[in-house]
Backbone:
């Protein structure tokens, strides 16, 4: 097994007859592995595998399995991530609508169950900017950090530091902090809209985090609110919101965030002055466009926007994922 920071062995390292060492290899959550077709029979007792990964920060014999392959044929143990083009209809279907003509953001009574997943982007970058980064938001070239968003000098320094430390200070993984802000729309574990039209509110459920949820109130007479009791993560991590419809788009205005989380994969910083305007548009039955305007005069030199799409996974149940505190 090759581990970043030096070779380690599940069998003796080359040139060293040191015997067999036991290693613990960490992988994606079971929910994500299952989405890609993994099951309990994918690896059998006695199968030989080769692992390349990142060693634990305390230098114990633990590693993140970045690449896991069968030794005999060099094929990946985990199947490639399912792409939307192979999973969803090739031709667009019309947007499902309520009797009053408003688009349904999720499932309708008596209709198909499902949730939104497979985001076209998994880290925020200003629309129109082309920089290369991996699915966790780690830049291919740290010199591109200043291009990602209009960061103030201090915020650029924080962002560069988080990148140089390979995102290992991410509070969502280190301390199980919720994926507040746009980050909840960057996970393949998905989101689900449940519309309570009688009470003029929308429940926004998450497959990531700790099954956190938000409530978007569309009542024009209601003040801007977070959740009042019942969910200790609110309003600190998900802000106080008020929503309204503009044609076929649900617009959500959110303020009053704390600074105790990363609001996007990759570690772009924010302050308690963060003000987001989210726009949800179901462009067809299988596509949801998400657009967010970031207004944070504490961290950025101007307002900026980012947008991406998610795909409808019909007939499926929102995955259950619960964080386990990373104490290493």
Residues:
């Amino acid at each position: 097994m090759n581990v970043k920071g030096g070779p380690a062995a599940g069998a003796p390292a080359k040139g060293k007859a040191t015997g067999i060492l036991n290693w613990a290899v960490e992988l994606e959550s079971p929910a994500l592995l299952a989405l890609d077709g993994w099951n309990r029979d994918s690896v059998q007792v006695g199968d030989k595998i080769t692992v390349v990964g990142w060693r634990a920060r305390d230098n114990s014999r633990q590693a993140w399995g970045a690449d896991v392959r069968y030794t005999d044929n060099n094929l990946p143990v985990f199947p490639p991530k399912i792409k939307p083009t192979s999973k969803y209809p090739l031709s667009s279907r019309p947007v499902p609508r309520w009797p009053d003509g408003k688009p349904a953001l999720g499932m309708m009574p008596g209709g198909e169950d499902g949730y939104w997943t497979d985001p076209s982007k998994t880290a925020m970058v200003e629309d129109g900017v082309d920089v290369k980064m991996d699915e966790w938001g780690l830049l291919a070239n740290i010199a591109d950090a200043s291009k990602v968003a209009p960061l103030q000098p201090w915020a650029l320094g924080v962002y560069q530091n988080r990148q140089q430390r390979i995102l290992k200070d991410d509070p969502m993984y280190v301390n199980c902090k919720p994926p507040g802000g746009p980050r909840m729309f960057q996970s393949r574990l998905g989101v689900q809209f449940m519309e309570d039209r009688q009470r003029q509110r929308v429940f926004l459920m998450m497959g990531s985090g700790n099954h956190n949820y938000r409530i978007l109130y569309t009542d024009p007479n209601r003040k801007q609110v977070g959740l009042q009791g019942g969910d200790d993560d609110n309003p600190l991590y998900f802000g106080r919101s008020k929503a309204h419809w503009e044609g076929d788009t649900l617009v959500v205005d959110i303020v009053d965030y704390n600074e105790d989380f990363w609001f996007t994969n990759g570690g772009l910083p924010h302050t308690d002055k963060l003000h987001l305007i989210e726009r949800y548009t179901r462009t067809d039955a299988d596509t949801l466009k998400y657009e967010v305007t970031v207004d944070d005069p504490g961290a950025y030199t101007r307002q900026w926007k980012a947008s991406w799409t998610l795909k409808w996974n019909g007939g499926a149940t929102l995955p259950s994922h619960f964080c386990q505190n990373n104490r290493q």
